[in-house]
Structure prediction request, 1406 residues.
Amino acid sequence: MTISAERPVATSGGATTTTERVSWTQRPGIWSQHLGTAIVGAIVGYLLGHWLGNAIASSYPYIQNSGQNVIAVTLGEIFGVAGWLLGIGALNYPLAKMAGRQPGKEVDVQGWSKYFRYSTNHKTVGLQYVVGVLLFLFTGGLLAMAIRTELLNPTTHYFSADTYIKIVSEHGTVMMMMATSIVVGPLGNYLVPLMIGSRRMAFPRIEAFSFWVFTAGYMVIFSALPLGGFPTGWTGYAPLQTQAGPGMIGYLFGFAVIGMGMMAAGFNMAVTIINYRAPGMTWSRVPILVWSLLATSALLTLATPTLFAAGVFGLLDKTAQTAFYVNEHGGSAYLWQNLFWFFGHPEVYIMALPGFGIVGEILPVFTRKPLFAYKVGAAGMIGVALLSFFVWQHHLYQSGINPDMRPLFMLTTELISIPTGFIYLVGMGTLYKAKIRFEIPMLFALALYFNFLIGGVTGVFLSDVPVNVTVHGGFFVLSHFHYTIMGGLLFAFMGGLYYWLPKMTGRMLNKKIGLWHFWTMFVFFNLTFFPMFIIGLLGQPRRVFTYAKNLQGLNDFSSVSAFLLGFSFLIFAFNMVYSLWINPQKAPANPWDSRGLEWQTANPVPSYNFERIPVVLSDPYRYSEPGAPAVADLGDAGLVHAAPQD
Amino acid sequence: MAKVEQGYTSTPEEEEFELRAHIGSVWSGGRLFIGMYTFLLASLAYTYFYLRSSNSGNLWRPHHMTAPMSFGWGIVLATALAGVLAVYGQWRFRRGGVADWQVAGWTALVLLVGALMLQIWELTKLPFYPGASGYASSFIGWGVFNIATLVVSAYWVETALARGMRLRTEIGGDRPTLSTHPSAQSFRANVASMTYFMGFVGVGAAFFFALFYLI
Amino acid sequence: MNETHHLRRMTTIWVILSIAADLLGWFVLGPHMPPGRMTETAYHDQIDFNILLMVALPVVIGVWVYMGYAITVWSAKRAPDPVGGDAARGNTRTQVLWISITSVMTLAAAAFGTWALVVDHGSGGGEGPNPIWAPSGAAQAETAAFSPNSGWTPGQALPVQVIGQQWKFTYRYPTFGGFETSQLILPDNATIVFNVTSLDVIHSFWAYQLGVKADANPQVNDVAYTETKQLGSFMVRCSELCGIWHGAMYNSGQVVTPAAFQSWAQQTEAANAANTKLLPPFAWTYVPDANGANGGYYPDGKATPYSSVEVYGSKNPAS
Amino acid sequence: MSKQGRFATVIVLFLVAVGLVVWAVAAFLTPGTPGGEMDFTTTASAGQPVNITVQTVGAIGFGAHPTWVSYLVKDPTTGAWVQDTSWKLPADTVVHMTVYQYDSGGPLRNQEWGQVQGTIGGTATVNGQTVSVVDSNSGGGVGHTFAVPALGLAVPLPGVSNPNICGAGPCHQSSPHNTVSFEFKTPGPGTYSWQCFVPCGLGYLFGNGGPMATQNYMGGVLDVVR
Prediction:
């Protein structure tokens, strides 16, 4: 710990020197705000809320009858999250602001303890997110292992039927919520300022808020298990939702909390990209990942409020006994489906677009070619984002809602494959007559093209109403979205980690272990999920604990592959620990010879990112072009020339 | 003259760039926030019309049940007036009328808090129970959303006013309307965004008042 | 090697593989594609699937051939240094061609899907309470549903009501006195009108081999049509998560000869007569009591459904 | 720390993580699994009918949810009433089942479940009388049903109309009750879920949450083995 509680700060003009209070979140030592106080706050808050709920509601007839006080649980969760935010220090500035104060000048505490604090440095938040999303991913993955264990045998059950549904629901919810932030959170927060040549994010407190709310959401969703779980899957269809026990609060409130995190993250991201681009960073020079994150942010900010509203209505149904989703009392079960999918389909592209952005960054570097059809690619991402607001009813073809609208939604859904196809145009054009280096990030990028092709093409089958009759609600659609989200986004994320972790941590990830990780993940991913297309076509619905005996062979094959796929994630975890901690190898400043602006700063990246705000001179993809201008003028550091040509 | 901050130096050009970016962020952030809030309220309006048109079991609104009209008028008038005052205050503020802006602001704040109280009170005095009908349900939804909206707008108005008071001492007696001090520029951007939001809140309140009380 | 060489090679490989795959797909795999050919809708769904497959296979193979070619021929070990610059940054002709081809394909897919949906009377999917693509005879079946003794004669459309409840589908045959049973027996060569509804949460009636899937929503009559073509048994599963026993919510049904169906229906009508009297009269939807037995979730006595539809279970309006 | 030291730390942390996972699975995911099933395969000699005695109570009176309605089964060896709804049964064997119904009843949501279905002879015996249909709209109504959907088995258990019903399980014969007995034949090996079709989960929408949606209360599995 190198900073003291009081430190001199030069104010504008450098003439007068005043002392300024260092924020509580950044004080060294344990007498400050950090993860510990957050946990204490959360526990105290939960207990307080729970007590309050019991005091208010334990005499209500339906609560006495059900023997489970959902109001106490709801208040407990709300107060718990408030306590968590209060404890970590998220509310310090919002409260101080009421007295008209400006934010204090904040610097990170030095040393590892900064990762357990309310840090406003985008690089710290980025690394916090890396750990956060991996925690999500691994817990969600363990639940997937449990699901595949149950499905090993159609008749012998390892879990009881109600527990199995809880596991399925928890897996889906955790994974979906994790996936919304898997790229925007870690890579987006870390890289966007570096890529656009900024020293900071626009709203660093909102950024930190998004992370700590995200972690709170994780705990809220997992609190459902000790509360009895929820039986609705990640889609949470009402009125089953209204019927469920207090575990459902974990889902509804968890969605609302993570929704706040998503809105905050997207808001900050969009505003930063719009306003903090360095001089010369015109829209036609913005890296493709930034384009994809801008499109994602538009979806995060505009689609998520609908989810938030839907979640609030659900909470009201369960606690205040409104009847938004209960037909028998004037509500409509369809309402949830509409609201949920109006968010839910943009959500799917929240999970797809960043992956496209990552491979768009990786391909030029490892092919030594410019990104082909850059503008078409960027336009494709914006197009996908726009169209995604008009397709939600393709989830509801068989629901009886607006059947006459099915041709329209079939059309809009299939139209979306046009801008999605641009991503393939970009990829295939970039590969043309390239010089491909098969480093780990490149392998993951190529794997995305392989997997997403299957995911995307099966999406066209699903969007076709007649075919949808057979494949809707079965393992076919399950496999389809695992191919797009896991095969697409997660592979891209892994590629992104191998590509950028050297920048973020200053350590190279071990290539040999990385190769093992890639090949096991790629092979067993396909062996796990491809059979599921067949299982689905042969008539197995989703989320069942028992299935036809003749499907046992395929299910077992899928399960065994899934276990091996799980093992590949252990290899990845081992690689992380091994390369970052056990046997760290210092990374070169620009290990992949990238032209990207993020690679042009010092390594490790100083807290202010750039010595001088760079003046961008050209786009980052002009590889193999003799005489191409440098990507940026970095001021004092002198003109940085294009990455060495090979 | 370079400025030393967090171990790095900023040239005046860079400071100017950062200030422009910051003010742009406040501007675009304010608009984006209105966009987000629009989607939130639109979800409620969608719910209203969805339940109204599906009318499950003829239970959209039996006997044309309506929340207490007096509360409704009180809430909408207070909120809309707060919106109007915010817009008026901004109009005066741009012309240098800081005192006018402050009076308008504090009045708007009082109105907002009053509307908040009324809204909470109304929820305890409803002539129907929450699950009685589709209308009843969506009305409760509006009550909750309105409480959130009023809290958010009161918070924004209050922080702007408090900031305005403290700013004067910070920038050494300059009027925040005229000063070129970065804090004053940032403050003006914030006030402009706040005004837009308040106008939006006023219009929203009138719209939902019409939905729930008038038609 | 010049440009045309690469493209010519890739195209050759692609054409050969695509033709082979399409032939295999259509003639070997196609006839066995789910959901089979037990009904007209299943048959159409199968054909639609196969046609999409014929388009999809060349697309997938095209990308794979290209990628495979690229990574073998243009790897860092073998490939010459690439050429950057404007030519590599984008080629208008390629881009226009790509966009045109994908646009035509997707528009064609949407048009084909719409056509298939309309000519196949909703393709066995749930069409909501007021289907706009009804087969002939559907209107007559709707009327017949309210004359409990009209029975069924070959050539007529048969109305069958599917009632989802946690956790079992039951079936009512409105033209046979409105008896209810947990068996689903259908006559061969007949248009079947499924009226799917639920007594509690959302279920989904999926008669796999029939190519029928319709969500069962409370208070909604979700109509789906099919026309039986083959005798045999078929599987019914719930395909919308409905709670703890969702996975156990299945039964098998049978398509039998019209004569066998007649005798089964008449026998069951007689055998269930005592119970049928206790059922509410047939209606498209029923209002279940949201509270369940002996009080419950909503405060009793305050909800007054002014309902125009039949009540299932006499505990409604809530007592 | 040396490289070996770090490596050892990682191993230890990994083992701790594995331990946490095992604990979480044991604490939250495995209770109520068929592992703790009641074994009826050894109670009768091969080919002979198996006797199962159960009771239904309005409130179980103990455990995590004392107010929930529940089935209790009589342990064939000790004779104690046990909360366990997973029963291991021999295949292709006649099961003679006796239910002591201690709970009140009411109208069924779907009168279809007032029919006795799938038993041997298509009937059940209620307090000594043979019945095939119970009118749930009259008398005590139907309190619960015992139904195995996959076998087409469903037996209504008429409700007790005497107001002095048993308050908490296990209930004794002295409390008012209806005795329902019936026989059915188990199919080939496999697991078959059974449940109640009366929406009896008080305080839950449609009455189908809580005890209706939790194994060991109003539903379970028949684990039929050869």
